[in-house]
Amino acid sequence: QVQLVESGGGLVQAGGSLRLSCAASANIFKFNTLGWYRQGPGKQREVVATITTDNSTIYADSVKGRFTISRDNAKNTFYLQMNSLKPEDTAVYYCKPVGILWQTYWGQGTQVTVSS
């Protein structure tokens, strides 16, 4: 059974911050590049940020300089720190490992709403 649980979403004003968390089972966390994805209203799902097992990161152009992905190996948890939030960041955010084996998996996600 897949164990990935997103949390930390909410309603925030533009310019505010939120930190999303994703708790994963150890076997998922330890061996995979991990990613945050999002799907905004009327938009396609997109990758937001990824982090490898050796902490190399990649960000979508739309969030560079505002979002930071990180991982805590002791807690089997990874995070998405979101600063300077914009209304266009409003979306359901999902976490999961990167890779073809995870292509069809999507958890419940966590809703982030940014008001103008």
Count of individual helical segments: 1
Strand content: over 45%
- Give the overall shape, derived from the CA principal axes: globular
Would you list the SSEs in sequence order as H and E?
EEEHEEEEEEE
The average pLDDT value, as a whole number, equals 94
Quantity of strands, as a count: 10
The computed structural class is mainly beta
* Spatial strand order of the main sheet: 2-10-9-4-5-6
* Whole-angstrom Rg: 13 Å
Biggest sheet layout: 6 strands, mixed
- Characterize the quaternary organization of these chains: single chain
Gap from first CA to last CA? 39 Å
Q: Can you tell me the residue ranges where pLDDT is under 50 for at least 5 consecutive residues?
A: none
Structural commentary:
The protein is mainly beta and 116 residues long. It has one helix and ten strands. The protein has one helix spanning 26-31; strands at residues 4-7, 10-13, 18-24, 34-39, 46-51, 57-59, 67-72, 77-82, 91-97, 110-115. A six-stranded mixed beta sheet has the order 2-10-9-4-5-6, with no helix packed on it. The chain has a four-stranded antiparallel beta sheet with strand order 1-3-8-7. A hairpin with a 6-residue loop joins strand 4 and strand 5 (46-51).
